[in-house]
Amino acid sequence: MAGNPERRAALVDAGIAVLAREGARGLTFRAVDTEARVPTGTASNYFTGRDDLLRQIDARLHVRLAPDPEVLGRLLAGPRDRSLVTALMRDLMDRATRDRSGHLALLEMRLEATRRPELRASFTRSVRGDLEGGMEFHRQTGLPGGDETVTVLYLAMLGLIVEHLTLPGVLDDALPGMRVPEGLVEAIVRTIVPAGQPPPART
């Protein structure tokens, strides 16, 4: 396998763009080469097969969609209350909107995982790891609510992101006077996250 890390990253990003635009069936090495504007056959020198490319797309998306450490640091300078959770969820929504292709590629990965058992196993571990990481972050930072809060918040925000990125018209004016998606983010946090202090840490 070729070992140029910059070229590999560019090819994986090209794969994300193809996956988001064309779906899993359109994700071919030729399409990736075309998207990356490299000679035909380049992608085949970097990935052992389509499953390898999908696994590397999964890993790359974790980097692309992660919070900016500087933004996270500024947010965590505030009180550990529901308003901080709202700010964190706003940042999540902003990142989803800015990198629409990345999140659409994640949705395509979910669909493809329903058809490919090996991908389903690895992607399940990856997404479960994200959820457990969110629980641990919530505990370590002393945010209000426990693991159940984080799980329900995760499900609600996932639903909002999917709807907003795919069928935004469904949400427009559904609740008169509520801004989409900003007002819905606030409503989700207000409904799910308790206003009080977090429960004692587990021992």
Describe this structure as you would to a colleague.
By secondary structure, the protein is mainly α. The protein has helices at residues 5-22, 29-36, 50-64, 69-75, 82-98, 100-113, 117-140, 147-166, 182-192.
Task: Supply the key terms.
mainly alpha, 203 residues, 0% strand, 9 helices, single chain, 66% helix, elongated
Uncertain stretches:
none
The residue-averaged pLDDT reads: 93
Shape field:
elongated
Encode the helix/strand succession as letters.
HHHHHHHHH
Structural class: mainly alpha
What's this model, at a glance?
Helix content is 66%, strand content 0%. The chain contains 9 helices and no strands.
Task: Write the topology of this structure.
Layout: H1 5-22, H2 29-36, H3 50-64, H4 69-75, H5 82-98, H6 100-113, H7 117-140, H8 147-166, H9 182-192
